[in-house]
Amino acid sequence: MGRHDVAVTGLGLVTPAGIGVGPSWEAALEGRPTAAHDPELADNPVRIACRVPDFDPDLLLGGRRAHRLDRFVQFALVAAREAVADAGLDPATWDGGRVGVVLGCADGGPATVEAQHRVLIEENPAWVSPLLLPMQLPNMLAGQTAIEFRATGPNLVVATACASGASAIGAARDLLTLDRCDIVITGGSEAMITPLVMAGFAKMGALSKRQDDPATASRPFDADRDGFVAGEGAGVLVLERVTDAAARGARVRARIAGYGATADAHHVTSPHPDGIGIEAALHAALADAGACPEDVQHVNAHGTSTPLNDLAEGRMLHRALTGDPLVTSTKGVTGHLLGAAGAVEAAFGVLAVEQQCVPPTANLHTPDPRLDIKIATAPTTTRIDLALSNSFGFGGQNAVLAIARA
Q: Which of 68, 182, 212, 370 is the most buried (most CB within 10 A)?
């Protein structure tokens, strides 16, 4: 056990596979895709997405408060409630000044902005909601979570594009190892499936164009991949120092043993073709964990299903990891949850280590022959002492988490 290890004592998930850790993990293990035609995108060039099903904020959060929150905050609060309960913690009894909140998102609340912009154009400025800014500002993700749990310690929102959730977990771990907090609620949330945002992604050529068969559109590492499918949701982890968790008799699901972060400094959207930046982040995470490349038995890859990303990452994994680890991308199931992806996939990494089982990569029909990596195509029970969770984002943002067995 490393000097800087922290314990994961709670998990909460809201994903396109369902609300809660149970249905989300079940879908991941089954390799069950969630992409479908989206009525809100009917007029868009790309009309498919991975939505959270049956999400009723009135039921889950209470009507009056729920309607003062953008969807990205609603997701986070539901996931955080599950995670705190899973950790066996009671906010009524903890020292809130020693509880931090560090969450990640890429955009904040674009749905609120688009709705209020329509009010501005179609009505007049007097009808714009006074809740516009409190609902859409990215920092409200952590601010509203702190209010919910009376957490008065450090309160941060991290924005590193699609690496945001993983970056937040890394920052949360630092707060614990530096003794700034005793407990940190961390992870990421995103709700960017709006007509404007999806039109922008489509215009960039980033989205899959498989309109007629949504379920097979997200196909990480497949030779015939043609882009990602956008998803939404939240992943929240409760972190504590291992010693503190042991002192209160908490269940430790896994340990966050290492974290590495780098910048490609290469291109605004494309990864470095040789994966130099992501490889540096991987080695930094391993060094932080006191581990070697041959110690890694599983990788939850970023694996977006875009041609460039999967090629750069796959080649990097073959070059950097000598132990032939079992690789998966759960984006074949959930789609790409953007700023929440790193948090949800870290949670899947924790579950894989805890249950010693690797979920499959959905829709992998013809593996890209240019990639010499071992990809899971079925749920696989195997020994996992150390796993990695990779997350990369626009602007060359790279974050890698090393997740160790409890």
A: 182
